[in-house]
C-alpha cells in the first residue's frame, strides 16, 4: 500500500455564515489551525465578538496522517452530542484536517429539540466549509544531513538534482543541513545520501 502523502486543509479563515432556525441564529466559522493554542486564540476572539451569545460549540482536527489525528468536540452546554459531533461530522465529510469549526448560537426563545439542534449545527458547519477555500498540501518529512565540509559538493549535487528544499543549514568544518522531502520520495532520498561515504542522514519527524 502506498502511503498517502497529501492532505486537504483551509488556505485561510472562512467568512462568517449565518443559519437561522426558529428564531435561533447560528453563526459558522472555519479556521486553519495546527495547534491547540491556535484553537484557544480563535475561541477567545469569538467569545469577545459574540459576548451575548448562548453557546460557542466547536470541533477541531489536527494532524496530517490518519493514524496520528488529534481531534476534540465540545457541545458547550447543548445536549450531549447535539453540537460538537455534527460539526465534526462535516470535517470528516469534507475530508479536511488542521481545521477548527466553531458555531456560535444565539437562542431565539424556541427550543429546537435534539434533532433540530443536530441539523442546525451540522448545516452551519457545512456552510462554513462551503464558504472556505480548501487546498491540497503535501505531507513532508524532514531529513537531517551531517557531513564534513570536504563532502559538500557531493551533498549539494544530490540536493540540486532532486530539487530538494533546504530548511536550514550550518556550514562549517562539520556541516548540518536539514531538508524537507515529500513523504513518498523520502526513502529514495535517504538512500541517495546514505550511498555517499561519510554522510549521516536521518529522518527527524518520523
UniProtKB/TrEMBL annotation:
GO cellular component entries: cytoplasm
Biological processes, Gene Ontology terms: regulation of translational initiation
Gene3D superfamilies xrefs: Impact, N-terminal domain
Classification via Pfam families: Impact_N
Stretches assigned to the Impact N-terminal domain: 22-129
Domain of life: Bacteria
Family: Belongs to the IMPACT family.
Protein name: Putative YigZ family protein
Organism: Gelidibacter algens
Source species taxonomy: Bacteria, Pseudomonadati, Bacteroidota, Flavobacteriia, Flavobacteriales
